[in-house]
Amino acid sequence: MSVVLPGTSETPAVGPLHRRTFLAAAGAGALTVAGAGTAAQASTGSAPVRVATVVLNGRVFTGAWGDTPAQAVAVGSDGKVLAVGRNTDICRRIGPRTVVIDADGGTVMPGIQDGHMHPLGAAAQSLNPSLGNVSMTIPQFRAKLQELLDASAAQEPDGWLQVADWNPVGLLPAGTVGDKSLLDSLNTRRPIHLQGSDFHNSLVNSRALALAGIDRNTPDPVGGQIVRDANREPTGLLKDDAQGLVSGVIPAPSAELILAAQVKMAGMLLAAGITSFLDASSAEESVKTYADLMARGLLPQHVTPALVIDAELAKKPKEAAEYLRGVRGRFAGPARLRLTTVKVFLDGVMEFPAQSAALLDPYLDAQGRPTDNLGPLHVSDRDYRDLVRALDADGWQMHAHAIGDRAVRTALNAYEAVAHHGHASRRHTITHLQLVHPDDYRRFARAGVVASMQLQWAMPSSFTNDALRPYVGPERYARLYPAHSLARAGALLAGGSDWPVDPLLPFTQIATAIDRSNPAENQPPLNTREALTRFQSLAMHTAGAAYQLHDGNSGTVRPGRRADLVVLDQDITKVPVKEIRATKVQYTLVSGRVVHEAKSDTGRARAEAARGMKTLGAGRASGGSCCQGH
Ligand SMILES: [Zn+2]
Ligand SMILES: [Zn+2]
How far apart are CA 339 and CA 549, in angstroms? Predict the structure, then answer.
């Protein structure tokens, strides 16, 4: 795949696609239809706007109900959508310098907006070997780790073995809980750190615990837990904010390695069709990194780095507000890097064995009997309300991680408290929403709270079948990921991937939100009563997330909106739902510029063929064969 990267500044770059079509068009200029419109008036001003790009022969999903079917989109030199319509109408607007893209019957739709992901985390993690998030028996698990140790044996005796994508619920048979003894018995002296794929669990060996200074006397940090055995000895499992005790002592990779990983990450975002996103765990350093990647021309998107307030600081609203004002005060742009949002973790994860999500009713044991465990609430109801009051007054939008119904209720209580002060427009958000009490469904719409959901999780898998079903019981299990109930109660849904918790597969998210199925498992879908329609699913991953990101200039394909578009290899408004997963992004446009082109050779050839058809057909009344069919 070739990526047409933008230039190193905000000015449009001339990538391969642009150059070739530009030259071809310039040479063939005399053949264009006489009198064809080459300029239009900008919707917001009087300066003439050239038709920079047209996409023809597509099925346009505009994102708005009731629009007349359209096949084509014209994009202005100002980076905005100029017109949406029939091929014949848009074809007439092609000028001598217009880039023509043939959608070949595929969907043309707003770019994917990701309301919750961790791209910098994905980049960092890509430097480590991966366990692939698969389930394994203990012998398989040990053999795999020994293989990784042997493959990097030169790092004995002190180099860390860091491993990504460890499935914290995936030791077989289901219900097996891992501990440091599994790692201590490997043939190595090295410290070992396994990062749980959910980023809420880590497993480390005794050497790693020793290097981090963790022993039976170490207190649990606020917002985290050092799991201990009956003698208070740490077992090697670290939950939530306790993970930082170990990850904080691991030497960072070199700046060159990190940058190389970030360059790759940025390319993946464009190839996946992501045109706006929120980084859900940012620090001031991340803001600088994004500004740097933008200055290098690697990230043409709009980016919202949500600044994390940890559980400790969350108790001190004044200090938290001060810290955030400081970050905002030192921030120097660019404007499409948006410092609007604050992230707080209200709880952890619900799956066994972590069970660190805050529930209203206790977890059950493996036999279905109630325990006394409600799961920890990392920030109390009162503390969160005080924090939200302080930050809302400073204009911040809150983005709360809440998995369990008690954490969700805590967030709603706080947001309602400020909604009554007329601040509903902040679009405070709750993300994940794995379990919501039915009494709370209506509260989202009433307080203007955005429901940010990662619905690729809403399917039968080891996480739901094995690590949840026995421990929450059938009644709660039937309500997991209540997307339909929330939508019916008027909540605004916004999509997100949580990448790299899962691979970056937006069309798998879109499909799973509709069919709640797992193609890899021969099992019935997960509570289909909570399934969304195709329109709802597409909307939550475009306009819904745009709403969450306070970006009313995008999310739908409408004249005047920013031309953040994707052109797909099939018509996902028509193919069977399960086939949506196989969708490939052919082109990604950000602010009207082609920033990714999947099949660079054939893609260019097609675009030029369309261009050629246009010019060759100039003498015909129809305006050329590219404007017919589809
Ligand atoms: Zn989260
Ligand atoms: Zn996340």
Answer: 11
CA 541 – CA 495 distance, rounded (Å): 5
Judgement on whether residues 544 and 564 belong to the same structural domain of the protein? no
300 in a structural domain: no
- CA 382 to ligand 2 centroid distance, Å: 24
Which amino acid is present at 478? Answer: A
**Domain with 243 in it:** 128-247
Verify that 394 and 413 share a domain, yes or no: yes
Last residue of a domain, one of 508, 523, 548: 548
Instruction: Identify the residue whose tokens are 């909307």.
Output: 539
CATH number of the domain within which 35 lies: 2.30.40.10
Which listed ligand is nearest to 346 at the C-alpha?
1
* pLDDT, tens only, 399-427: 999 999 999 999 999 999 998 665 557 99
CA distance 584 to 580: 9
Asked if residue 271 is part of any domain, the answer here is no
Residues 6+ apart with CB under 8 A from 439: none
What is the sign, positive or negative, of the torsion defined by CA atoms of 536, 539, 544, 545? Answer: positive
How far does residue 432's CA lie from ligand 1's centre (Å)? 7
Q: In what order do the strands lie in the sheet with 302-308?
A: 112-117, 274-282, 302-308, 341-345, 397-402, 429-432, 450-453, 492-495
Same-domain status, 442 and 525 = yes
Q: Please count the structural domains in the chain.
A: 3
The bridge status of strand 48-56 relative to strand 99-102 is parallel
* Distance in Å, CA 434 to ligand 1 centroid: 11
The rounded distance, in Å, linking the Cα atoms of 87 and 54 is: 10
Q: Ligand 2 center to residue 117 CA distance, Å?
A: 6
| Residue 389 sits in the same domain as residue 475 | yes
Say if the ipTM goes beyond 0.90: yes
Other CB atoms within 10 A of residue 295 CB:
13
Do 349 and 490 lie in one domain? The reply is yes
CA of 247 to the centre of ligand 1 (A): 18
- Note whether 399 and 535 are same-domain residues: yes
Task: Calculate how far, in angstroms, residue 519's C-alpha sits from the geometric centre of ligand 1.
Answer: 25
Expressed in angstroms and rounded, the spacing between residue 108 Cα and the centre of ligand 2 is 28
Q: How far is the CA of 600 from the centre of ligand 1 (A)?
A: 36
Asked whether residue 60 is domain-assigned, the answer is yes
What is the b/e burial string over 483-496, where b = at least 16 CB atoms within 10 angstroms of the residue's CB? bbbbbebebbbbbb
**432 C-alpha vs ligand 2 centroid, how far in Å?**
8
**pLDDT tens per residue, range 289-347:** 999 999 999 999 999 999 999 999 999 999 999 999 999 999 998 999 999 999 999 99
Q: Which CATH number belongs to the domain containing residue 149 in this structure?
A: 3.10.310.70
- Indicate whether 478 and 351 sit together in one domain: yes
As to burial, measured by CB atoms within 10 angstroms (0-12 exposed, 13-18 middle, 19+ buried), residue 473 is middle
Q: Last residue of a domain, which of 548, 576, 606?
A: 548
CA of residue 266 to ligand 1 center, whole Å: 21
Ligand with minimal distance to 500 CA? 2
At 431-444, the pLDDT tens digits run 999 999 999 999 99
* C-alpha of residue 344 to centroid of ligand 1, in Å: 9
The CATH number given to whatever domain includes residue 451 is 3.20.20.140
Other beta carbons within 10 angstroms of residue 44's beta carbon come to 10
CA of 399 from ligand 2 middle (Å) equals 10
Together in a domain, 66 and 203:
no
CA distance 579 to 152: 40
